[in-house]
Amino acid sequence: MVRKEVMKLSHNWKQRLLCVAIPLAVGGLSALLTRNSMEAFQSLEKPPLSPPGWIFPVIWTLLFLLMGIASCLVLESGEDRRVIRSALTVYGVQLAVNFFWSIFFFRMEAYLFAFAWLVLLWVLILITLVQFVRISRPAGYLLIPYLLWVTFAGYLNLGIALLN
Prior knowledge:
This protein is mostly helical.
């Protein structure tokens, strides 16, 4: 019996690590693909309240960590597998949309298109948040900072699209 519990705990740590690693990997790969675009970004006209450039990787890292923890809470909730699968599917889609936003914005400099894409991301985050709350309130609450940050990013993105 003890051996089973130890094996289950070991499996849970691997699963938890994977839950956190996936969004961090998505963010890391996105940052890697857009890293040479920061010089062009620095030269853009930005709307009021634009934070300094160094704050973005810090905040995104924290948000990706929160996403990973939230997905783990959903996965380990004990809820019906179909409900979990549905929520995690939407979560995965929003992660993919998140990944491509930075490419559209930074690499392609398609600011207005990136804003429209960000609106899609915002809607997907909201759907994910609602589904996560239904499964695990703490999981849903962990996505609130993400939704708020993407709202602010939308303001910044639209401002840059209009000013440049």
